[in-house]
Design a protein that fits this description.
Blueprint lengths: L3 E2 L5 E9 L4 H24 L3 H15 L1 H6 L2 E7 L2 E7 L6 E4 L3 E8 L6 E4 L3 E5 L4 E7 L4 E5 L3 H16 L2
Parallel strand pairs: 8-10
Antiparallel strand pairs: 1-2, 2-3, 3-4, 4-5, 6-9, 7-8, 9-10
């Protein structure tokens, strides 16, 4: 774990980088193949091999397969520093998100169903899960709850709780 100095000059008491599971890329490609085959058959049956048909197939292939490299480069960086919790789900966040210790009402270790990776809004708050079913729920005074997936949820929860204690007790 160790202590690291962050970009803002504050010390980091926890840092974790996670990426999506390695099997997800091949799975996405395999799941895309039927849609590509159907599109190719539909274009060829509609008018045979034409320049317009070839252009349409290229557009469909790019639309179906194009987002996969972006998705596969997704990473969640979670850092607990002296002043709060920072997280960034690249490439979807342009900059780090921040939760100050003052706005944290409660933090608890939690588990989500497997195979629901990514960034999503739920009825109770936001979930950031690149590759972990376990994580921590952060309940805030102003704003929806945040679930941060973690391969080290116990350490993450401890670092957040320690920061909250330090902030409240001076």
């Amino acid at each position: 774990m160790g202590v690291e100095r962050g970009l803002s000059g504050t010390e980091s008491t926890f840092e974790e980088h996670q990426s999506l599971p390695s099997w997800l890329g091949p799975a996405l490609v395999a799941l895309s193949v039927p849609a590509l085959v159907v599109a190719l058959v539909a274009v060829l049956e509609a008018g045979g091999p034409t320049l317009r048909g070839a252009g349409l197939v290229v557009v469909i292939v790019v639309a179906v397969l194009g987002p996969i490299p972006l998705i596969l480069r997704s990473t969640l960086r979670t850092t607990v520093r002296d002043d709060g919790v920072y997280f960034r789900f690249s490439p979807f966040h342009w900059s780090e998100r921040y939760i100050s210790f003052e706005e944290i009402e409660a933090v608890r270790r939690s588990e989500r169903r497997a195979y629901q990776y990514g960034l999503r809004r739920t009825r109770w708050g936001w979930e950031y899960r690149p590759n972990a079913s376990d994580g921590v729920e952060i309940h805030r005074t102003n704003g929806p709850a945040i679930f941060l997936g973690s391969e080290r949820p116990h350490e993450l929860r401890q670092a957040i709780e320690e920061g909250v204690r330090r902030t409240r007790h001076g």
